[in-house]
Amino acid sequence: xxxxxxxxxxxxxxxxxxxxxxxxxxxxxxxxxxxxxxxxxxxxxxxxxxxxxxxxxxxxxxxxxxxxxxxxxxxxxxxxxxxxxxxxxxxxxxxxxxxxxxxxxxxxxxxxxxxxxxxxxxxxxxxxxxxxxxxxxxxxxxxxxxxxxxxxxxxxxxxxxxxxxxxxxxxxxxxxxxxxxxxxxxxxxxxxxxxxxxxxxxxxxxxxxxxxxxxxxxxxxxxxxxxxxxxxxxxxxxxxxxxxxxxxxxxxxxxxxxxxxxxxxxxxxxxxxxxxxxxxxxxxxxxxxxxxxxxxxxxxxxxxxxxxxxxxxxxxxxxxxxxxxxxxxxxxxxxxxxxxxxxxxxxxxxxxxxxxxxxxxxxxxxxxxxxxxxxxxxxxxxxxxxxxxxxxxxxxxxxxxxxxxxxxxxxxxxxxxxxxxxxxxxxxxxxxxxxxxxxxxxxxxxxxxxxxxxxxxxxxxxxxxxxxxxxxxxxxxxxxxxxx
Length: 484
Ligand code: NAD
Hints:
This protein is α/β, with parallel strands linked by helices. Helices cover 40% and strands 22% of the residues.
């Protein structure tokens, strides 16, 4: 049994209360680790360490901060295999995916922001004729909180921490209690990279206890949160009266609009990925598939054929395409939606059933599931399921496709498949989403803004947007005497 610890002031420690939480391996259903059940006392200890480290970290040269971040990036790469194994065990995702995507991206996050901070600049505004010069001083905020979900554990944890640290803040961070392992391992890497004690503090525990304590802490001045929309609303209610800066990256129910004039083969293989990568547990998965009527039947047949060839299996098997869902409660939630779909009149075209994997009989495995729906307003098409479940439906016209795409409360991303440039321009402008991918999916350049509209969130991360979020802009206005 592994016993994970909080990483506070550069050292590992148990929760002050001595309480622990079980940590499950979703591919076997067995408890394999214990994590600290931190509460407000631990968060306050983490805050105090961060506050003590702030004067020196916030005034360290850009080169110093950059060098440490780049070193962390290097060490994540050096430890790629062990981190990927830890991620696959903790989350249930295929090891091949953790190796190809999650861990390289965690390293890329540190490398990107370690470099970006050397290029981050502020503006100057000369008030011509008034002998006045303004410049914008961008200062680190102080101690900030970063809270992340379980679906892309180290990937999203570092996506927040790296810009916060690059901008000169000290951080109190909490990974999901469902997938704490790689965040725990990151502490050691930070120490080895020479990150000074207290600059990053990693605390483990539940949302209502440790997470809430971060959000409610009067001196933690900004919160970057990625997770569910309901949790985001709760966080906003807690943080707003304290006027904290908030970045909320929340749920999605992303449309895939497939037009007959698209590159069919490319569309088909990418759509399989955008539907079921990471067991469909990516906020950016295209869970609503709308297909132009003229190719609908052909698409249905080909899509089912490709999806039925995916192998659901143990995350550690090389040929596994779909691993285990992250937890028993989550598996039950996803299954409940499959039942709802049937009650609502949806047709299960493929999947819908749990899978028994030999040697891992108690793991949380589910077939990739395709549901044909008739009503855009049905619950399986409106609510975020966040599992290997997609809906499909035909449309006749571009206008109808746009209405269907925008007909949900979410607005994170959308994918458009067409070779018509006019349509691309029209729809990209009118789709209500923070990201529109055209003839591609999950194609990320870290310089671009990332975030959602409607109930998918508030604010943007990525590139200089993240560095802006993690700094306060101060206008300095200097009046000068123009006469010598
Ligand atoms: P969640 O909201 O349950 O938990 C996310 C994090 O918040 C966890 O660390 C949790 O412990 C913490 N938390 C829970 N309650 C809290 C509270 N009251 N105060 C402070 N922290 C609290 O989400 P989840 O189930 O871990 O993740 C799945 C959700 O995340 C999905 O809705 C998915 O769409 C969303 N997500 C969004 C993005 C994005 O970029 N928009 C990316 C990945 C996942």
